[in-house]
């Protein structure tokens, strides 16, 4: 109960700061839209190849956009030594992890909600009936990205050139979640059914559960190191 | 409550910031921490508040090693840094509400207003911290610790941005803490003020504790201990 209360307050703080500064959300949205336009100019996707190409391109846009958000995730704590102020309080350090994952997830879902329709229009996608399935898989993939991204954003918090270091450390570890999400989306777009994609879906859920649990357990050492 | 420091040392790379520091702090103590720039005052305060870990030695609060203590034990120590430790784009009241919540303290909003009123910031409660002057931020820090009331309060150069009324507020708060059996350490270059307020002095020189004693002893030996703290050619007039 205490963890939930502390998570609420930390999330409340991040949402308020974002509503006032609007730095991360606006930058992420414009970067995501820009990537889609670049993809549109670079690739000419034939209608019969949409199911094959779309998930990869869409997820590249999501991953790059999300990484931009991750570099700013702990910026409020870096300014004015606010992390020190937080660490002086007796709150459960895992609450900071959970709140940052949730905040990052909210940002990503907002950006994806704007980027996906834009992608559908630019690439003439007509899969609106599959939207619930596509959303479910995208949500699981996004959650995995946010969990691992938050953890490594905290690991590189005090590193020099952290904006360069973060993608170098993060991207190799994200391969399972990116691969599983893209394969799942591809199968849903191709066949419209879940059944074939179940092994990938299991991998995605396992990834999310394992890294969420690991992050929750080790975050105290990460943030206080 | 007692705080015990034993053979505490801290190195940054190959550079020793503190070496072999030992002293005890008891409830009700008010201690001036003196020393020239780079003597290790801030490093010592950060070690005592568990924001950094020692290279060797130990800090114990009531026989519990601070390095292995839970966050709840470590939160017994408050660290007062003027003009820092607040989110600039939250309002004065939002900042206080956040930190009070993280200290698991319950408030009905009146406590916050009372604390802000005491430090003269009540009319600024809905303004962003970024809009405050350095002195006002220092008063806000004071309001936070008025609410939290830590068992040990460590103040790092608290006088700098404060005006006369702010200094009076700060000193009355420090005195009230000591009277309620809480311990205070003030790291400062304002030697006359610190020695008037505190009963004891610790003097650091190049990372070593060169003096630990009563304030009048410190005043008598100050030229010898920290002569470089005084303006060129001046002597300490006790």
Write a structural description.
The complex is a heterodimer of chains A (225) and B (238). With 225 residues, chain A is mostly helical. In chain A, 82% of the residues lie in helices and 0% in strands. Chain A has nine helices and no strands. In chain A, helix 2 runs antiparallel to helix 3, helix 6 packs across helix 9 and helix 7 (131-155) runs antiparallel to helix 8 (162-191). The longest helix of chain A has 30 residues, at 93-122. The model of chain A has no long low-confidence stretch (mean pLDDT 90). By secondary structure, chain B is an alpha/beta fold. Chain B has a domain at 86-149. Chain B contains eight helices and ten strands. Chain B has helices at residues 41-48, 71-74, 92-102, 110-118, 134-148, 164-179, 191-197, 215-226; strands at 2-12, 15-26, 30-34, 56-61, 64-65, 77-80, 152-156, 183-187, 200-205, 208-214. Chain B has a six-stranded mixed beta sheet with strand order 6-7-8-3-9-10, with helices on both faces. In chain B, strands 2-1-4-5 form a four-stranded antiparallel beta sheet, covered by helices on one side. In chain B, helix 3 (92-102) packs parallel to helix 5 (134-148) and helix 4 crosses helix 5 (134-148). The model of chain B has no long low-confidence stretch (mean pLDDT 88). Classes of the chains: A mainly alpha (225), B alpha/beta (238). The interface between A and B is medium-sized, with 26 and 26 residues.
The biggest sheet of chain B, with number of strands, parallel, antiparallel or mixed sense and barrel status, is: 6 strands, mixed
Low-confidence stretches of chain B: none
The helix tally of chain A amounts to: 9
Spatial order of strands in the largest sheet of chain B: 6-7-8-3-9-10
Count of beta strands of chain A = 0
SSE arrangement:
The complex is a heterodimer of chains A (225) and B (238).
Chain A: H1 2-21, H2 23-42, H3 50-71, H4 75-78, H5 82-88, H6 93-122, H7 131-155, H8 162-191, H9 198-224
Helix pairs in contact in A: 1-6, 2-3, 2-6, 3-6, 3-7, 3-8, 6-7, 6-9, 7-8, 7-9, 8-9
Chain B: E1 2-12, E2 15-26, E3 30-34, H1 41-48, E4 56-61, E5 64-65, H2 71-74, E6 77-80, H3 92-102, H4 110-118, H5 134-148, E7 152-156, H6 164-179, E8 183-187, H7 191-197, E9 200-205, E10 208-214, H8 215-226
Parallel strand pairs in B: 3-8, 3-9, 6-7, 7-8
Antiparallel strand pairs in B: 1-2, 1-4, 4-5, 9-10
Helix pairs in contact in B: 3-5, 4-5
């Amino acid at each position: 109960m205490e963890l939930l209360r502390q998570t609420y307050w930390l999330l409340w703080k991040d949402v308020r700061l974002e509503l006032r500064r609007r730095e991360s959300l606006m930058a992420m949205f414009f970067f995501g839209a820009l990537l889609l336009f670049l993809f549109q100019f670079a690739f000419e996707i034939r209608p019969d190849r949409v199911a094959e190409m779309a998930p990869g391109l869409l997820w590249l846009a999501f991953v790059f956009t999300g990484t931009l958000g991750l570099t700013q995730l702990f910026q409020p704590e870096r300014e004015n030594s606010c992390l020190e102020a937080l660490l002086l309080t007796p709150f459960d350090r895992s609450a900071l992890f959970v709140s940052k994952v949730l905040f990052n997830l909210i940002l990503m879902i907002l950006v994806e909600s704007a980027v996906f329709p834009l992608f559908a229009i630019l690439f003439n996608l007509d899969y609106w009936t599959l939207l619930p399935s596509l959303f479910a898989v995208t949500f699981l993939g996004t959650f995995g990205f946010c969990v691992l991204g938050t953890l490594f954003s905290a690991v590189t918090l005090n590193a020099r050139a952290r904006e360069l270091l973060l993608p170098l450390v993060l991207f190799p570890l994200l391969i399972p979640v990116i691969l599983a999400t893209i394969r799942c989306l591809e199968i849903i777009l191709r066949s419209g059914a879940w059944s074939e994609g179940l092994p990938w879906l299991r991998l995605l859920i396992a990834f999310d559960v394992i890294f969420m649990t690991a992050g929750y357990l080790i975050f105290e050492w990460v943030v206080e190191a | 409550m007692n705080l015990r420091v034993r053979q505490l040392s801290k190195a940054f790379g190959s550079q020793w910031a503190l070496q072999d520091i030992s002293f005890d702090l008891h409830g009700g103590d008010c201690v001036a921490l003196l020393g020239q720039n780079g003597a290790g005052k801030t490093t010592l305060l950060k070690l005592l508040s568990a924001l950094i870990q020692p290279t060797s030695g130990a800090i114990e609060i009531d026989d519990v090693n601070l390095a292995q203590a839970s966050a709840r034990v470590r939160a017994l120590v408050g660290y007062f840094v003027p003009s820092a430790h607040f989110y600039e784009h939250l309002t004065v009241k939002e900042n206080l509400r956040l930190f009070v919540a993280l200290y698991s303290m319950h408030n009905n909003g009146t406590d916050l207003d009372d604390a802000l009123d005491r430090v003269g910031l009540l009319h600024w409660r809905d303004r962003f911290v970024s809009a405050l002057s350095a002195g006002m931020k220092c008063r806000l820090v004071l309001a936070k610790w008025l609410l939290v009331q830590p068992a040990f309060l460590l103040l790092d150069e608290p006088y700098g941005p404060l005006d006369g009324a702010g200094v009076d507020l700060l000193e009355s708060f420090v005195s009230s803490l000591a009277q309620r059996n809480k311990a205070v350490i003030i790291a400062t270059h304002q030697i006359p003020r610190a020695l008037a307020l505190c009963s004891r002095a610790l003097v650091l020189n190049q990372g070593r504790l060169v003096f630990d004693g009563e304030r009048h002893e410190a005043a008598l030996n100050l030229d010898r201990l920290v002569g470089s703290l005084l303006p060129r050619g001046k002597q300490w007039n006790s």
